[in-house]
Design goal:
CATH class: Alpha Beta
Shape: globular
Helix content: 10-25%
CATH topology: Nucleoside Triphosphate Pyrophosphohydrolase
Radius of gyration: 15 Å
Enzyme class: hydrolase
Number of strands: 7
Protein name: Bis(5'-nucleosyl)-tetraphosphatase [asymmetrical]
Pfam families: NUDIX
Mean pLDDT: 92
GO molecular function, one term: bis(5'-nucleosyl)-tetraphosphatase (asymmetrical) activity
CATH superfamily: Nucleoside Triphosphate Pyrophosphohydrolase
Largest sheet: 7 strands, mixed
CATH architecture: Alpha-Beta Complex
InterPro entries: NUDIX_hydrolase-like_dom_sf (IPR015797), NUDIX_hydrolase_CS (IPR020084), NUDIX_hydrolase_dom (IPR000086), Nudix_hydrolase_domain (IPR051325), Tetra_PHTase (IPR003565)
Low-confidence stretches: none
Structural class: alpha+beta
Distance between the termini: 40 Å
Number of domains: 1
Length: 148
Amino acid sequence: MAVRACGLIIYRRLQPPPSSKVTDSIEYLLLQTSYGTHHWTPPKGHVDPGEDDLQTAFRETQEEAGLQANQLTLIEGYKKELHYPVHGKPKTVVYWLAEMKDCNTEIKLSEEHQAFQWLKLEDACKFAEYEEMQAMLKEVHQFLCSRE
């Protein structure tokens, strides 16, 4: 059976300079794992028994980044499933999109991560080594741009 995990792609909007596009002020939160290859990823984790997917996404975000559900706005209309093998077993990760209500809210990492970065799309794609993750970040950005 496939391993199932859920998480949130979290973004914040900085105050853009008057001459720039609104979408230029968007930054994405990526966390660097403190294990394995120290890869960068949005907060996510395995579904616990009795939990639904969205509950898992919010719980993992709170555990890994210290962000409470009431500090985020869930963005309607975006949900993405990624499928890839991990150690030879299939894995499914479901992501939702959430905006920080206050872009200055402090991130508090758990021991699972050693660093975090707020990154513009281009840099976020460089940090996220996996093609599926890069494609999803670009898709999210297009989704946000289309809502302007």
